[in-house]
Design brief:
It is built from four helices and 34 strands. With 489 residues, the chain is mainly beta. The protein has three domains: 108 residues, no CATH class; 152 residues, no CATH class; 90 residues, no CATH class.
């Protein structure tokens, strides 16, 4: 066997034809001879040293082709850069390249190409920072080059996308869509967040009904929109004219101290209306001609305060007096119209109204007319309809009772000595004779007043006075008859 070396290389064409092995002994050639099969072998790094100085052109290209990887024997050892020599191979000489599934391609003729197989290149196969835009055909990666949800913060160096990572340095509303949570600067969005555009060009943040929208300051909620649509605001609020920072103040909603809210409306930057949850409400604080009214369903001036005339009206704005009520037609108990005064303890109700039939000032109690003040004389007209009375019986003798009455002149204790005295009766004395003319009123002041006040109805004495006059007249007539009889004798 002959071994090639740099001094004695294999002769050219050595392996072009068949090679036979035979033995000759004492001039006698033994038969049969044996045909040798040639095989290509690789070099150990230690053996490659023997080829030092051998130019690449000196390597013999015998034209033999290895048909599969098994035809090339791989031996142990490494070939370093200074131990090897490089020969150039034409593309047409490459008919097959395999790279463990990562690469695919090859061919038996023509220019052999090599492509990256599906999922053939992974992050582990790439050196850090080895792929830049210059390695990409059009120097750009577009959204059509990326699979859906294929790039996450874990695929980015520091886990964040900033404006410097974007071509034009801006992130458009349509570029953001979050279905779980998202952190933008110091703001955290938990839950779905979709920024869309309405039909009118409005910018819309759609939480898809699954989450709340919250704005915080130092961890404290200052603005919160619940998924139900409820809006909660924290802190004071200021409405300004056009410019939110420097415009004239139009209205404010502030904390008045403790848990009390104060709402103020301004005119020319000065408070005009103030609604205080604790102290009360005030209108027209600048003392201008700013009237106040409350409209009802069918009346524009259900309640009206005329700031110029200092008058108050109900049902009208044409105010002739300090308090003017324009009521509807009275329709009896449970109806409308008039002024009603009700006691909240026993629900007793008095109603005053101007009668649409007589124009008198009528008084109703329990839905029943109790009396009127005549519109011409002002005299009081008491209720006295026979249809409303029962247990009717004549009055007996009243003259004796009348004779017991003690007419007096007096002043009340809260009157001055220079005031004109009154004439009348003492209720306790009258009560002993005519009890129906006196009423005892319990104390309604919870002990602050005088108990059992005696009130007297002077008009109740009129029937007794009339009866007394009748009795007296009968006596007069009897005496006149007696005198006439005596004179006739």
């Amino acid at each position: 066997m002959t071994l090639a070396n740099p001094v004695n290389p294999f002769p050219a064409g050595l392996f072009d034809g068949d090679i036979w092995l035979d033995f000759t002994i004492a001039g006698e050639t033994l038969v049969p001879r044996r045909k040798l099969n040639t095989s290509a072998y690789s070099f150990k790094s230690a053996d490659a040293e023997a080829l030092g100085g051998l130019p690449a052109a000196a390597l013999d290209q015998s034209g033999g082709v290895a048909t599969n990887a098994g035809d090339i024997a791989v031996v142990a050892g490494e070939v370093s850069a200074n131990e090897s020599r490089i020969a150039t191979l034409e593309a047409t000489d490459i008919t097959m390249i395999a790279a463990n599934g990562g690469l695919t391609g090859g061919g038996s003729s023509g220019t052999v190409g090599l492509s990256i197989a599906t999922n053939g290149v992974t992050a582990a196969m790439l050196q850090a920072d080895s792929v830049t835009s210059s390695e990409i055909a059009d120097f750009q990666i577009t959204n059509v080059d990326l699979a859906n949800n294929s790039v996450s913060s874990a695929n980015i160096v520091n886990g964040q996308v900033s404006t410097s990572d974007i071509a034009d340095g801006t992130i458009q509303g349509v570029d953001i869509r979050s279905t779980t949570s998202m952190v933008v600067g110091g703001m955290t969005v938990n839950g779905p967040l979709v920024n869309t555009f309405g039909s009118g060009g409005d910018s819309i943040i759609n939480l898809l009904g699954f989450a709340n929208f919250v704005v915080q300051n130092a961890g404290v909620d200052v603005f919160r929109v619940l998924s139900s649509g409820t809006i909660n605001l924290g802190g004071n609020m200021v409405w300004r004219d056009n410019n939110a920072s420097a415009g004239d103040t139009l209205a404010t909603l502030t904390d008045g101290g403790g848990n009390d809210g104060v709402f103020r409306v301004f005119e020319n930057s000065l408070v005009s209306i103030e609604l205080d949850g604790n102290v009360g409400s005030a209108f027209n604080l600048q003392n201008r001609n700013r009237s106040f009214r409350i409209a009802t369903v069918d009346n524009t001036y259900g309640f009206y305060v005329d700031a110029f005339e200092n008058n108050v009206g109900v049902g009208t704005s044409a105010l002739d007096r300090n308090f003017h009520v324009r009521h509807d037609q009275f329709t009896g108990i449970g109806g409308f119209g008039g002024i009603e005064i009700e006691n909240g303890t026993n629900n007793a109700q008095w109603t005053l109204y101007t009668s649409q039939s007589s124009s008198n000032l009528a008084l109703y109690f329990g839905g029943l007319l109790r009396g009127e003040f005549n519109n011409a004389t002002g005299s009081y007209l008491a209720l006295s309809d026979e249809r409303l009375k029962k247990d009717i019986e004549p009055i007996g003798s009243s003259l004796a009772g009348i004779m017991q009455l003690n007419p007096t002149r007096y002043r009340f204790k809260d009157q001055g000595s220079d005031e004109v005295p009154s004439a009348g009766f003492l209720a306790q004395e009258v009560m002993a004779v005519f009890p129906e003319a006196v009423e005892v009123q319990p104390d309604d002041t919870n002990g602050a007043g005088l108990p059992d006040i005696h009130l007297m109805d002077y008009s109740a004495l009129i029937p007794h006075l009339v009866r007394g006059m009748q009795e007296q007249q009968s006596t007069i007539e009897r005496l006149e008859k007696r005198i006439a009889e005596l004179e006739a004798r």
